[in-house]
Amino acid sequence: MGTYENKSQKALLIIDMINNFDFSNGEVLAKKTLPIAKNIQRLKEQFTNEGLPIIYINDHYNLWQADVQRIISHCQNSLSQEIIKTIQPNSNDLFLIKPKHSAFFGTALNTLLYQLNIRSLVITGIAGNICVLFTANDAYMREYSIHVPHNAIASVDDQDNEYSLKMIKNVLKGKIDPL
Predict the structure, then answer these.
(1) In this model, does residue 6 exceed pLDDT 50?
(2) Crossing angle of helices 133-141/158-170, nearest 10°?
(3) What pTM, to 2 d.p., does this model score?
(4) Angular region, 56: left φ>0, alpha ψ -120 to 50, beta rest
(5) In the chain, how many H helices and how many E strands?
(6) Is residue 71 domain-resident?
(7) Per-residue pLDDT tens for 79-103?
(8) 74 class by beta-carbon count within 10 Å (0-12 exposed, 13-18 middle, 19+ buried)
(9) Phi-psi bin for 24: left (phi > 0), alpha (psi -120 to 50), beta?
(10) CB within 8 A of 135, min separation 6: which ones?
(11) For residue 130, is it within any domain?
(12) How far is CA 66 from CA 94, 117, 172, in A?
């Protein structure tokens, strides 16, 4: 963790982008995820260039191992292949698994953020109305500054996604403009 000189106290969170989309409406979400994967990749490049931490928080798919290559192999299919190729973690990126919807619940995320001296989070990923919203809520309760770029999250239902952004902006005092 000493590799980051985080003068701005900011980190990028990437939630559930390594995904097999093997669920009801998974095909719909996969189609909406590819465009945001490209936007998140641009954010990753910006954070990398600035020397800021990039943290993937992902479902574990009952593997219960924070082994990113094993999770990628498990998730690789025709729906996910292009998304994973676009957004897969680099060797310097941090990777955590989560048991439930929030990236904070049952994970070491808060401890990691504390050790990295993070006070501001850019939260991206899927699904905007579930895991991203719940993570933003938990971040707000822990007094982090929140930025959820509206072009870096997706949900199955566009109306649910917009409602989540509205909640993040109006209730959680987060920014939702694109980076």
Answers:
(1) no
(2) 10
(3) 0.94
(4) beta
(5) 6, 6
(6) yes
(7) 999 999 999 999 999 999 999 999 9
(8) middle
(9) beta
(10) 13, 15, 57, 101, 102, 103, 104, 123
(11) yes
(12) 10, 23, 29
The Cα–Cα gap between 72 and 64 comes to: 13
Q: For residue 178, what are its two tokens?
A: 């694109």
Structure tokens at 158: 């566009």
- Of 61 and 57, the one with more pLDDT: 57
- Report the domain count for the chain: 1
Give φ, ψ of 65 to 5 degrees. -135, 135
CATH number of the domain enclosing 49: 3.40.50.850
E strands in the chain: 10-15, 54-59, 94-98, 120-126, 145-147, 153-154
- Which domain range does residue 106 map to? 10-170
Instruction: Write out the two tokens for 68.
Output: 């990113």
Residue 120 to residue 11: CA distance in whole angstroms: 7
